[in-house]
Amino acid sequence: MTNVDTRTYDVVVIGAGPVGENVADRTTAAGLSTVIVESELVGGECSYWACEPSKALLRPALLRADAGRVPGLGPAAAGPLDAAAVLAHRDRMAAHWNDDGQVEWLKAAGIDLQRGHGRLDGPRRVAVTTPDGGTIHLLARHAVAVCTGSTAALPDLPGLAALRPWTSREATSAPQPPGRLVIVGAGVVATEMATAWQALGTEVTLLARGARLLPQMEPFAGELVADRLREAGTDLRFGVTVATAARTDGQVGITLSGGGRLTADEILFATGRVPRTGDIGLETVGLNPGDWLTTDDSLAVTAAPGDWLYAVGDVNRRALLTHQGKYQARIAGAVIAARAFGAPLDTERWSPHAGTADTAAVPQVVFTDPEIASVGLTTIEARRTGRRVDVVDYNLAHVAGAIQHDPDYRGWARALIDPDRRTVVGCHFAGPGVTELLHSATVAITGEIPIERLWHAVPSFPTISEVWLRLLETYRDQHGGQGPMCGRRG
Length: 490
Prior knowledge:
FAD/NAD(P)-binding domain; globular; Class-I_Pyr_Nuc-Dis_Oxidored; flavoprotein; FAD/NAD-linked_Rdtase_dimer_sf
């Protein structure tokens, strides 16, 4: 009779990226035995192929750009980057693609790690194919959390395998700058990687299907980024797609829609994400392989009865951002623990067991030149949903703190205000140094702070945060908002 290796835990987590780690941390801290299953590196996409390495590539590029615009530095700070040093720093930030440190953290937190590919095998069951080809069966008393994330979407082009295109993984881990890089896409990955590799000496061509960059954000964001990329030497082409692409003798030949050809050393497809759910056994619980997993605000999968299956992070498509996935993980961990111990759930708006921020206050930074910072409702979403908002704009070049960054500062701020509740529901900034404005905007939105109260949050002079006062003054002048009359600015 064959022995079956079966192990029982309170919670089984599939995927040991930052999201899975946080779910496991919260359930373990609550006293639930937890195992986490990982087929690649513990730490996931963010640690090795996304957030950490990409920002290591971008930080020197943005610092050089900022320094080059400061009087007294200028040309002295605008020389070429040391590509070898930048890439060595990137390697350190990605821990040289070694997860020993992350594994030690799991051990210290009391979380068991099972290496291998995990697949659902019916309700509360996970079968793990181990690296040596064996199978381990994991039973969950209370919950299984799917935290497998997303992967790059690739176009349906003939000969794609032979083309060997870059995805975000190759773009953040390449051992050296390519001579010529064609980037297909107009979103965050496309614009950030154009910024990074252009700064390292690569000749970059960016192909966008639509008419502008960063189409999901406020229009001024994409316009300012496009201006800077052009100034840096990027060839931006709008309204084009790739008809064919093939690699010959190491070079990539590209035919564009409507004619035209390009030749490059590498081609990066940054055209979206798809869920990593194609081979995780969804069919064994009545779900469709390859689908996004829809959840309620407690992160329980709505199509799986019994409140035992959770989908956390990118895989649920609520907000494809690491920090938002970690936020969801904290919610999910609290929900799983409450249900395990028979405690009532508090799922009201902004409660401990509801992911309200996923729909009301998702913060995002795009680390381009200039930086883009955004949280909450956009004008695009307001128009699409018919929501009435007052839109307040202010030119950041008129803020004293911004001019300290650059006498010719280019940037913009926009606030969206609910005219009935008189609270901020969206904030969007573009310009050097604006990322540090984002958390104050996030607090204003999640705290639902009335405009009248925000008048009493006094920004320090001269900082870029003074734009908060300028937005309030503009709202008062344009929309009759209440607030103290101000004397001369400055």
